[in-house]
Amino acid sequence: MRKFAVLLYPDFSLQEITCLTSPLAIWFGEMIDFIASENKEYRSEEGLRVLPTKTTAEVRITDYDCVILPGTVNPLPALFDEKLVSFLQDGVGSSVVFAAISSSPLLLSKAGILKGKKFTAGYFSQLADTFSFVEKDNFLHKAVVEDGNVITGIGIFFREFAETVLNRFGYDIGNRFMRDDPSDYTEQDLTYTWSPDDYQEFLEELKGFPAEQ
């Protein structure tokens, strides 16, 4: 199995990455580590309270095949988190695939991972003017950009971003990834039935709960 990680920081966006993390975990059975610089509660921009499963001090970035960076409406706390930046810097020159969406390519730029690479991002253009570590000449006005071991995307194209990452690792997602048309489905198609073994497993699990009144 491959090893995936998601970085957590204040006001990270769940919406921008769940189109990727859900298939990884549910469709393909991959385990995902959620890594932060501190073992404390982080709130997503949607308000969900999340605890990391590991800290940057407990793992090495090169332990992972892919590190996913969600966007954030508030990029400064992550950008000035020395532990987080140092963790990313240890991945410079490695084979780790970095998948960053929305504002998070800014963090990759600071860590030196985007040096010499084409990229896109969904942050306000003035940020690129503010920070000298952003290589503005390498910015492309595209939904998703793949350059070497780095995949970057704009937040509104979260589905295309997820599709690119999943294709990069060879997962079979078909040619209509999360684009199904409800009118294409029959009543039978929309009737879900367990196999006998799976239903029996459910019944055994059900025995551990109070009997129905």
Would you kindly provide a written description of the structure presented here, covering whatever features stand out?
The protein is α/β, with parallel strands linked by helices. It contains 7 helices and 9 strands; from the N terminus they run βαβββββααβααββαα. It has one domain (about 5-180): Rossmann fold (3-Layer(aba) Sandwich). Helix content is about 25%, strand content about 15%. The strands form 2 sheets. Strands 5-2-1-6-7-9-8 form a 7-stranded mixed β-sheet. The termini are far apart.
Task: Briefly characterize the structure.
The chain contains seven helices and nine strands; from the N terminus they run E-H-E-E-E-E-E-H-H-E-H-H-E-E-H-H.
Topology of this structure?
Elements lengths: L3 E4 L10 H10 L4 E5 L5 E2 L5 E2 L3 E2 L10 E4 L6 H4 L2 H8 L7 E5 L3 H7 L13 H6 L13 E4 L2 E4 L4 H11 L27 H11 L7
CATH class: Alpha Beta
* Mean pLDDT reading: 96
Strand order of the largest sheet: 5-2-1-6-7-9-8
Distance between the first and last residues' Cα: 43 Å
CATH structural fold name:
Rossmann fold
Number of strands: 9
User: What number of domains?
Assistant: 1
Categorize the overall geometry.
globular
Secondary-structure element sequence? EHEEEEEHHEHHEEHH
CATH architecture: 3-Layer(aba) Sandwich
- Report strand %: 15-25%
